């Protein structure tokens, strides 16, 4: 008869479990992320060499710039904040690891209780005695000490997957930190080149002011000789005043750019050591772009998105495991007695328990279903984010490759323009002295020459920035 009861109970448990499993929602498999990239960049030949593999200390030849980047990586506050987030992600791994291991606790307690005599417990205790010569104590005290343990059997790998998710999120945070280093290196280099360009603009303005001062002196002499009118003098004075005003504007931009660099480096404002006199003569290094598929290995933001996608996939498994029964085991072992002196009397004071339970959601599982659907939606969003990051990386590289090539041609033409206009300044003055040119031609020539020199400095700056941005777009700068 007992065997029949056991079989019935087993069948009931089996059928209940079967029903629960049949209620687990199923979804069609979410598509895999598309990693395909073009075989080569537009108008570029396939190349096995990739400049992204060059360490930033070797990529930048300016020792002053390398020193600034070194200090920034050690002191930049934003980077320090990111490093703390990495450590927090690391701590999460420890927390998730502990969830699927047994929890063991030590406990000790003492209590006292007095029940009413006309209650069931009171009536029983009234007639109880420990021994013939020792009555049951009133009020009743109780002392205990022992160990307790609890453990959820992770048969559906929900807890282990939770730990794997924490590991992936930690690795993603590391890649996020690397991406920040790449951006920091790029921003410092770009600001450094911007500062050098401003120094050269200021130098050109000062040289032009000297030239315009001499021209104004010449025009005043011409007026005294009645060869020009006061109008010419005032026009030359106005041009001189305009450039004197521009000098202060550029000086303020230098101060702000220096302070920005100091902020990125993580220190209070101070003089930035730089070699601005070599700015125009800086050679443009040829950057090897490799092949587009290299981006998957070199771009830290792509690797971060890939790790986040893997974590999102595991989150779906964790959400699905919530539909399954959870099996737990609890156990306790200790000593318990109403007087401390009896605690050491074993086995009389020995107490223990062992409990196993199975808990599964049965009715009103809407919250679990919603979380499962949300996990699937997050996984799909992570796929789109990953694909978007790859597409963005490719377009960034393509843009900078084109930018570098166009700026190279632009700089070559501007060199000829500057040379021609610089020569025309002397010619216009000579012609003006011999009354073969109007003063307006001298003014216009000086203005155009100044503009062309400022433009070629800006073009050189843009060339250097394009190289930095291309190096960053390829995935270099974090190692």
UniProtKB/TrEMBL annotation:
Keyword Coiled coil on entry: yes
| Coiled coil ranges | 394-467
Entry keywords, A to Z = Coiled coil
By its UniProt entry, which InterPro entries does this protein fall under? Answer: MdtP/NodT-like, OMP_efflux
Q: Which GO terms describe its molecular function?
A: efflux transmembrane transporter activity
The reply on keyword Coiled coil is: yes
Record family assignment: Belongs to the outer membrane factor (OMF) (TC 1.B.17) family.
**What is the protein name stated in its UniProt record?**
RND transporter
The scientific name of the source species is Polaribacter glomeratus
């Amino acid at each position: 008869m007992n065997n029949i009861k056991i079989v019935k109970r087993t069948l009931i448990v089996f059928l209940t479990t079967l029903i629960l499993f049949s209620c687990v929602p199923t979804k069609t498999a979410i598509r895999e992320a598309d990693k395909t990239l073009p075989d080569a960049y537009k108008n570029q030949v396939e190349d096995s060499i990739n400049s992204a593999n060059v360490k930033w200390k070797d990529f930048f030849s300016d020792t002053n710039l390398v020193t600034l980047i070194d200090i920034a990586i050690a002191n930049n506050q934003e980077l320090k904040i990111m490093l703390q987030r990495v450590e927090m992600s690391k701590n999460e791994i420890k927390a998730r690891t502990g969830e699927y291991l047994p929890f063991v606790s030590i406990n000790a307690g003492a209590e006292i209780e007095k029940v009413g005599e006309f209650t069931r417990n009171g009536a029983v205790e009234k007639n109880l005695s420990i021994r013939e010569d020792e009555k049951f104590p009133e009020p009743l005290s109780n002392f205990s000490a022992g160990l307790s343990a609890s453990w959820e059997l992770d048969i559906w790998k929900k807890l282990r997957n939770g730990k794997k998710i924490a590991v992936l999120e930690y690795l993603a945070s590391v890649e996020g930190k690397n991406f920040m280093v790449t951006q920091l290196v790029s921003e410092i280099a770009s600001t450094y080149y911007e500062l050098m360009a401003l120094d050269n603009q200021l130098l050109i303005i000062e040289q032009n002011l000297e030239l315009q001062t001499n021209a104004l002196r010449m025009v005043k002499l011409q007026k005294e000789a009645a060869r020009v009118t006061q109008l010419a003098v005032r026009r030359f004075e106005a041009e001189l005043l305009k450039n004197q005003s521009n000098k202060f504007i550029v000086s303020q931009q230098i101060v702000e750019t220096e302070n920005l660099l100091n902020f990125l480096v993580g220190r209070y404002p101070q003089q930035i050591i730089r070699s601005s006199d070599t700015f125009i003569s800086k050679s443009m290094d040829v950057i090897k772009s490799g092949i587009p598929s290299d981006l998957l290995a070199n771009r830290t933001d792509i690797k971060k998105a890939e790790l986040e996608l893997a974590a999102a996939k595991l989150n779906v498994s964790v959400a699905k495991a919530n539909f399954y029964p959870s099996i737990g085991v609890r156990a306790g072992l200790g000593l318990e007695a109403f007087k401390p002196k009896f605690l050491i009397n074993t086995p009389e004071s020995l107490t223990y328990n062992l409990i196993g339970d199975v808990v599964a959601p049965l009715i009103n599982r809407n919250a679990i279903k919603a979380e499962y659907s949300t996990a699937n939606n997050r996984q799909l969003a992570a796929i789109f984010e990953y694909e978007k990051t790859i597409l963005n990386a490719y377009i960034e590289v393509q843009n900078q490759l084109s930018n570098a090539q166009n700026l190279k041609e632009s700089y070559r033409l501007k060199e000829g323009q500057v040379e021609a206009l610089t020569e025309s300044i002397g010619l216009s003055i000579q012609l003006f002295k011999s009354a073969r040119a109007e003063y307006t031609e001298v003014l216009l020539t000086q203005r155009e020459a100044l503009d062309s020199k400022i433009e070629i400095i800006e073009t050189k700056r843009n060339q250097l920035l394009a190289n930095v941005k291309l190096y960053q777009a390829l995935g270099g700068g974090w190692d």
